[in-house]
Write a structure and sequence with these properties.
mainly beta, seven-stranded antiparallel β-sheet, seven-stranded mixed β-sheet, 37% strand, 7 helices
Length: 1455
């Protein structure tokens, strides 16, 4: 069983298949039964609703939750046990970063699974879309969505999934390209005829935010349809390839619907609603049928037909409000709510078999005939041709679906922002047309911000009288009410708190339980924590009972446990009566049964007075009775609830009027809506058992119950019945005098309020019948348009006006600048929005900026969407600029953030208010020619590790400043300058290791010469600066020096480095002679030991000589000797003896080793950390001066590996960590074979081989020529270099050809691509193509009568595309790269071009394909040279191991 609203594709909100008993919920024993906290805690957010499902394979009910971090959780529905979990990031599908979207923060942190998934219960398969990236490269341009199908039990992917549709053109316009990074999949998913449908919208109206409908086949994941809501003739034309992808060529009409699903009645059609448009619309005031094709679907409700064979969707019908242009300008999305298709068994009439309803940000509910939506301006006087228009009180915006309840006459529920939940009763007009009337509301007010979810209604086993209305409020949490109102109010049910719910939520229901997921990493379950002690007849339905009579029914109960005693009854409504004496006394055994009577007693109730305050009104009465027990059983409740329901009836006719007050939405004089005024309905009902006759109708402006009240009979003028004196309140469907309303009958009456005179008005209308009288109150007001005034505060206490946007289509971007800051300051600028008009001003769009340094002070409450500002009043918001401390010698830091704001003042426009702040740092030391600091701050580093300084030279100065130290470094010609211990200046050329970098706060000592500057910190931390003209920290490149500091040479005279060996004062490794002193160096020690086979240095100042090496001395990692002459018990050893693997003359001296391998075998290490640079004895390094040069090029590939680049490497932070080996006969093939099970391999220093599956974050592509060491086993190959890896990968890597001569491919004269004279294009061949996933896409041109090869080439060249292809029927495609499996070498390109039969224009699903090649003897002097990376974009179609430049870039070769 699928237990969630979206499993009901009509989206009507009614769930009859749940055991949600109102008596149990209100019993006091209902609460939270378990909580699951995700491992990542509060940072994990859930916007998708949870799913509750019982898989066929297990029969065990589970809860499935999907987070914005792309994680999935499967929990036991009863106890919350984690059954399975999956993190898509482990499959390379980490979530999309919100920071890549600039100023859009509707969802914070990351975006993963947002639209609620859907389950196919026949296969236990869950379908969803997850947002991530195309590759490891970030940025919105590289964002992508993937379609997943996973097993509901194991969460593992189904075969053939996931699927990506990145770059897919729209079915209805191939110039519209689907780019996952610019869209948001917000609506829930829906399955229709084996196709999973999803809606896509934009991110805060950024980029082109065009809406998409995408359908994917369930069993294969095949893309069946991709429809753009703006596309085709009349829609904005794309300008360039980049613009169509990201910015222009859109038009809005996004599909987001507050998270609701695309609706369907499973009749081969789907329904959705769209948001505002970006570029106007197609209709532009001209009435149009909904059956005509609409290419700009902004502010529309759309019915799409689904082709049963192909799955393609096509427009069948639509509705667009006659006010849609005004809605566009005011940003009042019709599509902020979804479409509800109401139950046709209840909601029908007068030829209408199915009703559709939607309500959006404009605060208007539209009621349609689902089979004839109404088109555009087809109503009377150019208005809307729909069943009914209902304006929300105060025009409050709505985000989500209306909910409906089809039993007990039928009801609809809507919750506007900042208003109560409204209840509308279903009825029919005098002509039989369907109509809804406001009859009740909740006492609670919804959150005054966006986020209240759609209404959901449940019943206990589908029985009337048990309906519960559920509404999720983002501030108050989940609320519940008896769904059928009483006396104009909803009765609230007590619920436990549900904190931290996300926007647009609905609860998910299980077997007597409900579930919520939160915005702080929790999944919550609620239910009755204990079992019931008995099973009783419940609910108990008395049916109809006349007022003044009684009716008694018998309840039978059976005990589920042994019960000590029954203690009595408790009830909450006196009309239901029970007696304690009817209960059995004494203990009851397990399985015992007993019965007792319950009486529905209406004898004390009398039908008196007006229906405005009756003693009783006929209708449904509901209550509960509880039996108190003593049972002593752990886990069982002490009370047994029983639900009661009955209907009180009157034998005589009895009139009721609902609602008791009709409060019309305000009329804004002069607005588009004022043309028709404000509509409402009310219901006349005969709730008696006899026919009721209307005897009279009158209005009054006096107190209705006053004896002095003057009543005026209603009159009719020009078909309108006047309900007051001036005729501001009118009706066209009032009953006539003498009209009979049969027993149980109702009449829905329309009413209208309209005037061009501002003011507040009211009237009371009273109805006289042969049974009783009743009256209702009409109220309305008229005012002028709202007029917005937006201002920002000045430092002098005044206000500057921000002008309205000159262009309401494109909006405007006003700039507000904070004063420059030196850091550690706080500035606040206030925004003030004032309503200078005569009616309420509403904030229709508000996306505040958020950030630690620059952001809105109260982003959730200031200028929230839906906020209303009364005439003459103002609302305030503030933005805080509070940057951290400015870093000495840093470049100026610029902060920028935008607050997107719009109102329903139609002259206001979308304001993207951009706030700018700048942090300026103090400049000191040498300056560049442009006046900037030459020495930049690198960081706070740990100094003096193992008695070694980061920089070697010390200069002391009691008046030390950082600028003085930097000047000393510049004079000495060195790169780094560091200050420490307040008075010490250290300078040198040693690049500090990344592991030594600490926090800036760890450097806190004031400089001796300037207390405002920092010179190092406690425990040996140094404030380090670098010469920005010689060192580039982003890739570790340094100019004019190695940057390595003290090194260990590979050779000293006749000695070769042998390694780092253990030593002991008890048993010396070298026994011959020794010396010590402050002047010891490797050279002096080698000279001292001349004639010996070995020499070694230790403790920096000790030198040892010997002809043999003690057997107790063991080889240690080089790190144990730190690469220097100083380490306790570590001997830096050199030898002139024969080393294993060398070609020198033999010697009896043998070096001990931790490995038992022979001298010809390689040493192989596999661990979580790599060895240091020279910790092996398998080969000796050749000195730089003696190193031969490489005699050949770098191979493009070795076995399964492709050459990547020369990578930087560091001893303390290896680029590759996984496996290591070294060999005196190293070649690229040897290393590739060693690393065959890894993703990467790299060779370094000629003889070292490293393997790994990832690259460390500190490694980058080297920009110098450090990879210049030949391989010992093949000097034609390059095996890295000093701190440089020749790096290969198994990933596909296009490489630029390194040929030294230019080879030009020319067209053959027999080629169908060839033309009379040579041009810049080269024919490449015949390529496969499909209509659903184009091989090349970017621009297209169709000419079925005159297409030629030249026409296609000219078109693609004019659009700056380097690739062109022709297909049969005269279609030309242009693109930047081949994708979607396009491959050359195909057959079938045999169709002649329409415009030149001697040329070929592809074939069916075949492209004739070409790209551009240019030749010249000169290069234009105006052509600038750019970085090589800008040409490494497009893969050459003829050789995918090579790059062929990029759009507007030319890859040049010269002979």
């Amino acid at each position: 069983m699928c237990l969630r609203v979206v499993c009901h594709p009509a989206q009507a909100g009614y769930l009859p298949n749940h055991n949600m008993d109102p008596s149990i919920i209100s019993s006091g024993g209902f609460g939270r039964i378990w909580t699951y906290s995700t491992p990542t805690g509060a940072s994990e957010q859930f916007y998708a609703k949870p799913l509750v499902f019982t898989p066929l394979t297990t029969g065990r009910q589970i809860v499935l939750s999907f987070s914005e971090q792309n994680r999935i959780y499967a929990l036991d529905a009863v106890n919350g046990t984690l059954l399975a979990t999956r993190d898509l990031a482990l499959d390379g599908e980490g979530p999309f970063a919100v920071s890549d979207l600039g100023q859009c923060n509707d969802i914070s942190g990351t975006i993963g699974v947002t639209g609620t998934p859907v389950i196919d219960p026949a296969t236990d398969t869950v379908y969803f879309w997850a947002k991530s990236y195309i590759s490891t490269v970030k940025g919105f341009q590289n964002g992508a969505y993937r379609f997943h199908a996973i097993d509901a039990v194991t969460l593992q992917e189904k075969a053939g999934f996931p699927k990506s549709i990145q770059g897919t053109p729209a079915d209805n316009d191939v110039s519209r390209i689907f780019i996952g990074g610019t869209v948001l999949q917000r609506p829930a998913l829906n399955i229709v005829n084996g196709i999973v449908f999803a809606g896509f919208g934009g991110h805060c109206d950024q980029y082109n935010f065009t809406g998409w409908v995408v359908g994917m086949q369930t069993n294969t994941g095949k893309l069946m349809t991709a429809f753009a809501t703006v596309g085709g003739p009349g829609s904005p034309a794309p300008a360039t390839a980049q613009d169509v992808t990201y910015n222009s060529g859109g038009g809005g009409a996004a599909i987001w619907m507050g998270g609701s699903a695309i609706a369907s009645d499973q009749a081969g059609r789907i329904f959705f609603a769209t948001g505002n448009g970006q570029k106007g619309g197609q209709n532009q005031g001209q009435p149009a049928s909904g059956r005509l094709k609409l290419n700009t679907m902004n502010e529309a409700v759309v019915n799409m037909a689904v082709n049963p064979s192909t799955g393609l969707v096509t427009q069948s019908d639509y509705f667009e409000p006659y006010t849609y242009s005004a809605l566009d300008n005011a940003d009042r999305d019709l599509g902020s709510g979804g479409i509800a298709l109401l139950d046709p068994n209840t909601f029908n009439g007068n030829g209408v078999s199915r009703i559709a309803v939607t309500v959006g940000k404009n605060g208007v509910c539209y009621v349609f005939n689902a089979d004839n939506l109404g088109g555009y301006k087809l109503g009377t006087g150019g208005t809307d041709a729909i069943l009914q228009t209902i304006t929300m009180p105060g025009s409050g915006p709505v985000f989500g679906n209306p909910g409906s309840y089809p039993l007990e006459g039928g009801y609809m529920y809507i919750t506007p922002v900042g208003y109560p939940t409204l209840v509308y009763s279903y009825g029919k007009t005098s002509t039989g047309s369907p109509a809804f009337t406001l009859v009740a509301q909740s006492a609670d007010i919804s959150a005054g911000r966006v986020g209240t979810g759609s209404a959901t209604i449940t019943t206990y086993k589908g029985q009337p009288g048990t309906a519960i209305l559920w509404v999720v409020d983002p501030d108050a949490g989940l609320r519940a009410y008896n769904a059928v109102p009483s006396n104009g109010q909803l009765t609230k049910l007590p619920l436990p708190p549900t904190p931290s719910v996300s926007k647009f939520q609905r609860p998910a229901f299980g077997d007597g339980r409900y579930y919520m997921s939160t915005s702080n990493g929790k999944i919550l379950a609620y239910g009755s924590p204990v079992a019931l002690p008995m099973t009783c007849d419940s609910p108990l339905d008395f049916g109809q009972a006349p007022i003044g009579n009684t009716k008694t029914l018998i309840v039978t109960c059976k005990t589920n446990i042994a019960i000590t005693s029954l203690n009595g009854f408790a009830t909450n409504k006196p009309v239901f009566q029970v007696s304690n004496s009817s209960l059995p006394t004494g203990p009851l055994a397990l399985g015992a049964t007993f019965s007792f009577p319950v009486t529905f007693n209406l004898t004390a109730l009398i039908l008196t007075g007006s229906t405005s305050s009756p003693s009783v009104t006929p209708g449904v009465q509901t209550s509960s009775v509880w039996i108190s027990t003593t049972n002593g059983n752990v886990g069982f409740a002490p009370q047994q609830p029983i639900s009661l329901t009955g209907t009180a009836i009157s034998a005589a006719p009895f009139i009721t009027v609902n609602p008791l007050q009709i409060d019309f939405a305000g009329v804004v004089v002069g607005s588009a809506a004022a043309e028709t005024g404000s509509d409402a309905t009310f219901i006349l009902s005969n709730v008696g058992l006899s026919d009721m006759t209307i005897l009279g109708m009158a209005w009054t402006s006096d107190a209705v119950n006053s004896d002095a009240a003057v009543f005026h009979n209603l009159t009719t003028v020009n078909g309108k019945t006047l309900l007051d004196g001036p005729g501001y309140f009118t009706s066209t469907s009032m009953p006539s005098i003498g009209q009979v309303i049969p027993a149980g009958g109702t009449m829905t009456i329309n009413a209208n309020f309209n005037t061009n005179v501002t003011g507040t008005y009211s009237s009371i209308v009273k109805f006289y019948t042969n049974g009783n009288t009743a009256y209702t109150l009409f109220t309305g007001s008229a005012a002028t348009n709202p007029v917005a005034l937006l201002e920002y505060s000045t430092n002098e206490g005044g206000w500057n006006t921000i002008a309205h946007c000159a262009n309401l289509v494109t909006g405007c971007v006003p700039q507000i600048n904070f004063a420059p800051s030196g850091g550690l300051t706080a500035q606040t600028i206030q925004l003030r929005l004032t309503n200078n008009g005569g009616s309420v001003l509403t904030v229709t769009k508000s996306k505040p900026l958020e950030g630690a340094e620059l952001g809105a002070t109260n982003p959730s409450t200031d200028f929230f969407e839906g906020q209303t500002i009364m005439p003459g009043k103002s609302a305030l918001a503030s933005v805080l600029f509070s940057p951290g401390a400015a870093i000495l010698n840093a470049d100026n830091i610029v902060y920028s953030g935008a607050w997107t704001l719009n109102t329903d003042d139609q002259t206001f426009g979308v304001h993207v208010i951009t706030f700018n702040g700048i942090v300026t740092s103090k400049k000191t030391g040498p300056l560049t020619s442009t006046g900037q600091s030459l020495y930049k701050y690198l960081g706070c580093y740990q100094d003096y590790i193992n008695n070694v300084r980061l920089e070697p030279k010390q200069i002391n100065n009691v008046s030390l400043t950082n600028g003085w130290c930097q000047s000393q470094a510049l004079s000495a010609g060195v790169v780094f300058a560091g200050t420490e211990y307040m008075t010490e200046c250290w300078i040198g050329n040693v690049i500090p290791g990344t592991t030594l970098k600490g926090l800036d706060s760890q450097c806190g000592y004031n400089c001796g010469g300037d207390s405002t500057q920092v010179c190092g910190g406690v425990n040996g931390f140094i404030s380090l600066y670098y010469d920005s003209s010689r060192y580039f920290p982003q890739n570790g490149t340094i100019l004019g020096t190695s940057g390595l500091g003290p090194q260990r040479p590979n050779t000293i005279g006749a000695y070769n480095y042998a390694g780092c060996y253990s030593d002991s004062q008890v048993a010396r490794s070298l026994i011959g002679k020794q010396t010590a002193g402050a002047t010891i160096s490797l050279d002096t020690c080698a000279a001292f030991c001349s004639g010996y086979n070995f020499f070694g240095v230790e403790y920096a100042n000790e030198c040892y000589c010997s002809n043999t090496l003690a057997a107790t001395s063991l080889l240690k990692p080089d790190a144990d000797c730190n690469g220097r002459c100083k380490m306790p018990s570590g001997l830096t050893l050199y030898s002139n003896a024969t080393l294993p693997g060398s070609s020198a003359s033999s010697s009896s001296s043998v070096l001990p080793s931790t490995s038992s391998a022979s001298s010809t075998s390689a040493t192989i290490l596999t661990s979580s950390s790599s060895p240091s640079l020279t910790a092996q004895t398998s080969s000796s390094r050749t000195s730089t001066s003696a190193r031969p040069t490489v005699t050949g090029p770098i191979p493009a590939y070795i076995d399964d590996f492709n050459y990547l680049y020369c990578a930087t490497d560091a001893n303390e932070d290896r680029t590759l960590v996984g496996k290591y080996m070294a060999s005196g006969t190293m070649t690229l093939d040897i290393c590739a074979s060693t690393c065959s099970e890894y993703r990467y391999f790299g060779v370094e220093y000629g003889f070292e081989c490293f393997c790994g599956d990832t690259l460390t974050a500190t490694s980058s592509k080297a920009t110098d020529d450090r990879c210049n060491y030949p391989c010992p086993g093949n000097t034609a190959e390059t095996c890295g270099g000093l701190s440089g890896l020749t790096l290969y990968t198994k990933d596909f890597v296009p490489v630029v050809s390194i040929s030294s001569t230019l080879v030009v491919a020319t067209t053959s004269s027999s080629s169908p691509w060839a033309t009379a004279s040579p041009d810049a294009w080269d024919y490449l061949g015949c390529m496969n193509d499909t209509t659903t996933a184009r091989a090349i896409s970017g621009a297209s041109l169709t000419n079925t009568t005159a297409m030629t090869v030249d026409m296609c080439k000219d078109f693609c060249e004019s659009k700056n595309y380097p690739l062109a292809g022709l297909e049969n029927l005269g279609v030309c495609f242009c693109g930047l790269a081949v994708k979607n499996g396009g491959a050359l070498g195909q057959t079938g390109c045999t169709s002649a071009c329409p415009g030149d039969k001697t040329q070929l224009c592809g074939g069916s699903k075949r492209l004739n394909f070409g790209t551009q090649c240019y030749c010249s003897n000169t290069i234009s002097a105006a052509a600038p040279v750019v970085d090589d990376s800008e040409c490494q974009v497009l893969v050459c179609p003829g050789n995918k191991l090579q790059y062929c430049s990029a759009g507007k870039r030319l890859q040049v070769y010269s002979s």
